[in-house]
What we know:
The chain is mostly helical. About 80% of the residues lie in helices and about 0% in strands. The protein has helices at about 1-25, 30, 45-70, 75-95, 100-120. About 30% of the residues are buried.
Amino acid sequence: xxxxxxxxxxxxxxxxxxxxxxxxxxxxxxxxxxxxxxxxxxxxxxxxxxxxxxxxxxxxxxxxxxxxxxxxxxxxxxxxxxxxxxxxxxxxxxxxxxxxxxxxxxxxxxxxxxxxxxxxx
Length: 121
């Protein structure tokens, strides 16, 4: 079980890291031109960068507390926060008719739920 939780946390952290770096450092205009990134053209650049920073923090929060043995309770807290972020992403993509991305975000949400549940019990 512990190995499965580490794998899930590592995969989700990689997703969060990639999304965070992209949203934080790639210009909003380039993001808006990519499939699934059209929503970035409808919001402010500060909002996109804020989401990127939150995703970078999530990447760290899913792995580092447990790996370092310092405040491991932050792992399930981060996973729950990721679930909230994915709920927002599903609503955004659903409103835009991007249902494949809704399913992808639902998969990320389920992975985060598994991590939250597994690290609490």
